[in-house]
Design brief:
Distance between the termini: 249 Å
Biased composition (Low complexity): 10-39, 48-171
Largest sheet: none
Number of strands: 0
Region (Disordered): 1-187
Structural class: mainly alpha
Amino acid sequence: MNAGPFPRNALPQQPGGPAAGAAAARTAPPAQPTLRTPQPGQPVQDPAAARAARAAALQQREAVARQQQAARQAQAQAQSQARAQVQAQSRAQAQQAQAQARQTGRMQAMQQMQAARAQQAQAMRAQQMQQAAQRQQMMQMQHQQAAQRQQAAQHQQAMQRAPAPQRQAPPQGGGGHGHCQPGKPCR
């Protein structure tokens, strides 16, 4: 078999040979980074935009946390104020109840005192009426005694003023005993 001008297994060489390829590699400019073309629906991967997005998300989370904390503080303050108001109302009601009890006690004491005074005045009036009745009875007794004394005096005066009995004539026919008068010797 005639091999021809080239060996059977020989590869065709580039023009200039291996030395020319090495020189071209040394003189080639450095490779520039290529931007990947984003696929449809995917955002552009910009580092600055990503950092800004992360910072915005962090700020938003911090703002939400602050709002939640402020809401919790406001709720706690409202609950504390409500408890204080309830306690104040309870104290006011207790004080009012105590004042009403004291007022009721004073009113009851005054009513009892007034009732006692009324009973005392009624007892004094009854005693005065009884004393007046006793005085009237004594006056009636005195009037009766005076009337009895006056009647006795009148009777005595009437007895003293009564005329003496007349002397009776002696019986006819002479002698005989004379008439005897009371308190005088017989004649």
